[in-house]
Amino acid sequence: MIRTATREEFPQLVDIWLRASQRAHPFIAEAFWNARADDMARRRLPACKVQVLEAGRRVIGFCAMRGEHLEALFIDPEVQSFGHGSGLMAHAMAGHRHITLWVYSRNVRAVSFYRRLGFSVVDEREDAETGEQESFMAWSR
């Protein structure tokens, strides 16, 4: 079931974000992610429309949109690769005509995932905080 997140769930969502980020980005130090957990909980998630995916009464992932920009899409690492991310994205795409996002270029799995959904790379930049290349991707209906 996909539903709107409650603020009380934000700590659980930050935990999913943190574990999934560390797993997906071995090229970035864990300390980088740990230092940003509070910002995710206090600033980033509250600024977005956050939808959670529940399975068996357990939140296993979430999608955070700020307007037409995807700020975050994360699935609990314990249940990745079962189509949960695709389901969340299908839900987001059904409610928008256009979606943009930034993704680390070295996160080949994520870049491939978004390409399969019809996103294209339209720009690239260096992330000032990590020195890593990021791809700006866009999708339109």
UniProtKB/TrEMBL annotation:
InterPro entries registered for this protein in UniProt: Acyl_CoA_acyltransferase (IPR016181), GNAT_dom (IPR000182)
Residues in N-acetyltransferase domain copies: 1-141
Entry EC no(s): 2.3.1.-
Domain of life: Bacteria
Keywords noted in UniProt: Acyltransferase, Transferase
Pfam families documented for this protein: Acetyltransf_7
GO molecular function: acyltransferase activity, transferring groups other than amino-acyl groups
CDD domains for the chain: NAT_SF
PANTHER family xref list: PEPTIDYL-LYSINE N-ACETYLTRANSFERASE YJAB
Protein name: Putative acetyltransferase
UniProt source species: Halomonas fontilapidosi
